[in-house]
Amino acid sequence: MAHTKAQKTVKGNRDSRAKRLGVKIYGGQIAIPGNIIIRQRGTRVNAGPGTMLGRDFTIMALRKGKVTFYTRLGASYVKVE
């Protein structure tokens, strides 16, 4: 028994493109100013010293240095040392 009524594909049978979110520069790696460290939806990780939070919650490096992740009072942060 066929699962579709006709030979054509279903009208709403399309998927959206992946958004490529996640960590782009990991802890211990070197970042230069303007490098994207994390792409995220909402503040899963907060911006610490040497970083900046963009309007789409992207965290970018403001200076050259080593990327470090840390936790303070239950919240995750990233900084560039």
TrEMBL record:
Keywords: Ribonucleoprotein, Ribosomal protein. Pfam families: Ribosomal_L27. Transmembrane segments: none annotated. Coiled coil: none annotated. The keyword Ribosomal protein applies. One of its GO terms (cellular component) is ribonucleoprotein complex. GO terms for molecular function: structural constituent of ribosome. GO terms for biological process: translation. It comes from Candidatus Roizmanbacteria bacterium RIFCSPLOWO2_01_FULL_44_13. It comes from the Bacteria. The keyword Ribosomal protein applies. SUPFAM superfamilies: Ribosomal L27 protein-like. Belongs to the bacterial ribosomal protein bL27 family. This is Large ribosomal subunit protein bL27.
